[in-house]
Amino acid sequence: MVGYAFMGAAHSQGWRTAGRVFDLPLRPAMNAVCGRDATAVRAAARKLGWAAAETDWRQLIARDDVQLVDICTPGDSHAEIAVAALEAGKHVLCEKPLANSVAEAQAMVRAAEAALTRGQIAMVGFNYRRTPALALARRMVAAGRIGTLRHVRATYLQDWLVDPTAPMGWRLRREHAGSGALGDLGAHIVDLAQHLAGERLTGVSAVTATFVAERPLSDGGRGRVTVDDAALFTGRFASGALASFETSRAAAGRKNSLRIELNGERGSLAFDLERLNELSFHDQTEPADAAGFRRILVTEPDHPYLKAWWPPGHGLGYEHTFVHQARDLVQAIATGAPPEPSFADGLQVQRVLAAVEESAAKNSVHTPVPA
Ligand SMILES: NC(=O)c1ccc[n+]([C@@H]2O[C@H](COP(=O)([O-])OP(=O)(O)OC[C@H]3O[C@@H](n4cnc5c(N)ncnc54)[C@H](O)[C@@H]3O)[C@@H](O)[C@H]2O)c1
To answer: Any idea where the Gfo/Idh/MocA-like oxidoreductase N-terminal domain is (predicted)?
Structure first.
C-alpha cells in the first residue's frame, strides 16, 4: 500500500478484516507499506499491521513479495504509480478519482487493458458501491423494480471548508487534487448515479464556485485556492433520464452527507449515507391506498455482503465498505474476472468531471460527455 493516512487506514482495516469475515480464495498478506518519511512510515506500519516499510514507491513495486499495489495517495501520483505497478506485473487498487485529468486516466486504462490480458486486475476505489443498501439498490434497478428510469437526484455535502480560516492543504490545490469538491465528492455520486442507473451520462450543464479564494499556510503566509468549493450540475443519461448533482465542502452542518434517489415509472429508491443500513423503496404498482415509501432494513442474509456478517438488525458502518472492496478485489484476482469498478469506469467518471469544468467555464453551456 502507498500512503497511510486517511484512506491508508481505511484500506488497512479492509485488508486486515476481509479474510476473517469472508471465505476468500486467496489470503491477503499485508507485506509492505510505503510513505516518504522513514520514521512516520515505520510507525504507521506497526499501527496498521504492515510487515515492512518502504520510503520509495518504486522500491515497493520492485519487491517480490508484493503482488498487489494499493494506491492511497493524492491524485497527482495515481497515474505514475498505477502504470508502473501494472507494467511491473502487479494487480492494482487505486483510490478515486482515478486521476487528475482525462489524459492520465486514459493512460491508466491502456495499462490496465494490457495488464488484463496477462491476468492482472485493476480496480478503482469507489467504495460506496459496496454499501449493502446501495448494492441492493443496484440489484433492484437491474431486476426492473423501478421500471424505466426518469430521474436521479444526488447530493454529497461536507462542511470542513465553511470556516474561512481552515488551512490550506493538498485538496485545495489543482496540481495535487485535480479539482475540489467536484473530484473529491462529486466523483462518488457520478459513479453511483451511473452504476445504479446502469447507463452513462451523455452531457452536463454546470456551475462551480470557490467561496474562499485564499487560505492560511503553515508558515504563516496565505496560499491561493485553485479548485472549486462547490459544484452543481444537471445531466442527461443515454436513455433520456435526467439527473441533478450537488456537491460542496462548504455546506454548514453536513459532515459526510451523501444522498441519492432514483425515480422510475414503476417506483423509486432513496438512500442516505447517515442511515446506511436502510434503503427506502416506493412501489408505484401497489394499490394507492396503502402505497408509500417503505424502509427496508438492509441487514438480512439475502442482502448483498450480509450473509458473512452479523444477525439481522445488527448493522454495518462506513469501514465495512472497504472490507467489501478488499473481498471483491481478491475474488476478481482469483477468478481473473474483469473487476468492477474498472479503470475504464474511472475514466468515464473523469470525463464527466472534465465536462462539468468545461461547462462551468462556458457559462453553464450544455457540454457533451464523450463515450
Ligand atoms: N474512497 C473514499 O471515500 C475516499 C475518501 C477520502 C479520500 N479518498 C482518496 O484517497 C486518496 C488519498 O486521500 P487521503 O484522504 O487518504 O489523503 P491523506 O492526505 O489523508 O493521505 C495521503 C497519503 O499519501 C502519502 N503520499 C503522498 N504522496 C506520496 C508519494 N509520492 N509517495 C508515498 N506516499 C505519498 C501521504 O504521506 C499520506 O500518507 C485521494 O485520491 C482521495 O481522493 C477516497
So the answer is: 1-115
